[in-house]
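[agent] plan:
  1. take the single chain provided in the ticket
  2. run structure prediction with default settings
  3. attach structure tokens to the ticket
  4. add a short note for the reviewer (M.T.)
[agent] executing step 1
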Amino acid sequence: MSFKPDTSIGLIGRGAIGGAIAAAIESGSLPGLVLTAVLTRTPPLEGASEIWCGNLKGFLARTPDLVIEAAGPEAFATLVPSVLANGCDVIAVSVAALADDVVEAAVNAAIAKSGARLHVASGAIGALDSLAAARELGLDSVELVQRKPHAAFPGVDLQPGMTQIVSTGTARDAAIAFPRNSNIAAAVALAGVGFDQTRVTVVADHEATTNQAELKVSGRFGRFDLTIQNRPSEANARTAAITAQSVISALRRSRAAIAVPA
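[agent] step 2 finished; step 3 output follows
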């Protein structure tokens, strides 16, 4: 992924993730990248009003070179296929939306039409490069366990002081049941054996203070286990603080003379 010297960035969503990405671009820490369009449902409270767009038509009229989606699965489903069909590459955070067959079909149709590409942000998980490499030799099993604090599951009937399994099954099951908590599961599925072969358990842990993921992979290559404990974003307990940084890192890597795999 590489772009011209001055690359215009369009950003969908400016919450906990999008706000951190916007701040990194606007601070000048990513030279050559310019934020030219921000699509949100409501205008920003301060700053960026001149680049705010209230609808997709106005957003695309600003002709961004690259679009970053950081607005949640509903926004992904309704907006990303149209952005891709318009010929614009997308770095997406809310890839749990692809567990929906209709959304996946719309994305594939848009890519076939325009030739644009969808780049999956690694988000709050690691080792996707190793997982994708191992897939080339053949994978036997991919298992993921996610543990998050109770605050990450608003609206779920949880027993105070209890640790509960809230989902067990496939990555598709997890993504459909908890789309805002399952972007890790979706990224793992896309890098590995797919939504229906990736086993995922989601745990609401009353003692957890971090968003934890345990990834276990085996195949012809051998085996690897990854455990990561991410601090939640201060702005959104369901989101790891590192998620925005994965996109910022991808942007930095796109312009690096020496690009390290991710």
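[agent] step 4 note for reviewer: The chain has a mean pLDDT of 93.
[agent] ticket updated
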